[in-house]
Amino acid sequence: MLPTPEQIRSFQRDGFVAIGPLVDETALAGLRDAFEALERRWAAELDVTVERYRTVVSQWTGLWEQHHAFAVQIHHPAIERVARALLGVERLQLFHDHLISKPPAHSSTVPWHQDYPFWPVNAPRALSCWLSLDGATADSGALHFMPGAHRDGEKPPVDFLAHNKDWGPRAKDAVAVPVEAGQVIFHDCLSWHYSPPNHTDRPRRAFIAIYMDADCRWAPAHSGWHPMNELVSVGPGEHFNTDRFPTIRRADLDEASP
Ligand SMILES: O=C(O)CCC(=O)C(=O)O
Q: How far is the CA of 89 from the centre of ligand 1 (A)?
């Protein structure tokens, strides 16, 4: 599966593109089951019910190190091929994964932001692959984008606790990107995006793998506080250590299987 020329143009023009479904229902069910098993474990560790736990914690990272299903998922061949073609690089490396959940009645707005200003990575040669586990509609917390705003370049990191960005007359150009379960939104690390709360009675979970060009280097001066800095065992300006930042298998070249 390669992106079509129109999908590549759309990613370059708008800063995002939704493709798929790329992940089939069996694999999706495996990811949902794996996540729910992890939730039960984490809730038990905190000695709270899983229902209570879900209303309080909404974002997790490093799932690929916690459960085999996510370790396999980060090497998903179709996603790897599309992401590599959209970035136009030879090899991808995982910066990190995360899962964001907006449970019914217990979610809030993720304000407008760009991702890259928060990352200790030397160049904005990276993208997020936002895999919908449940489907997402405008009223269940779908991602919204400001098409083309990535081409205005990197801006200072937003303050997530301050007021949401006011786009002025440009606000009318913002678009919601509803997706089915199994579809993936690929978005450039300089894209501007936000998500509203989930107003439905359905879950809205997304598993997000952030891939960078494997030639990117660790740049703590770009973001000294990022949690991933703790996992780095190389020096500034060096390639990220592959034990915690795995290079992604190329299904078309590599022999190793999951
Ligand atoms: O899933 C969400 O609601 C927000 C996702 C996001 O900000 C991202 O993928 O960078």
A: 23
